[in-house]
Amino acid sequence: MAKCSVCDKGAHFGIQVSHSHRRANKMWKSNIKKVKANINGTPKRVYVCTSCLRSGKIERA
């Protein structure tokens, strides 16, 4: 599973509870994109979550 290279955000696991209270195991995936970014001045392809992209924590190449 892809993980954000900036903040280490990945998949979250838990139990989904329906209206009738039936329980099922569920995995919530983070919105992670493969982008070309400048890492130490050189362009590299990395996995970054969209919240890090929007906040400007990483500079796109």
Any descriptors?
single chain; mainly beta; two-stranded antiparallel ribbon
Structure report:
The chain is mostly beta strands and 61 residues long. The protein has one domain. Helices cover 10% and strands 46% of the residues. The protein is built from 1 helix and 4 strands. It has one helix at 50-55; strands at 12-17, 23-28, 32-39, 42-49. The strands form 2 sheets. Strands 1-2 form a two-stranded antiparallel ribbon. Strand 1 (12-17) and strand 2 (23-28) form a beta hairpin. It is elongated and about 55 Å long. The model has no long low-confidence stretch (mean pLDDT 95).
Short account of what is shown:
The chain has 61 residues and is mainly β. The protein has one domain (12-55). It has 1 helix and 4 strands.
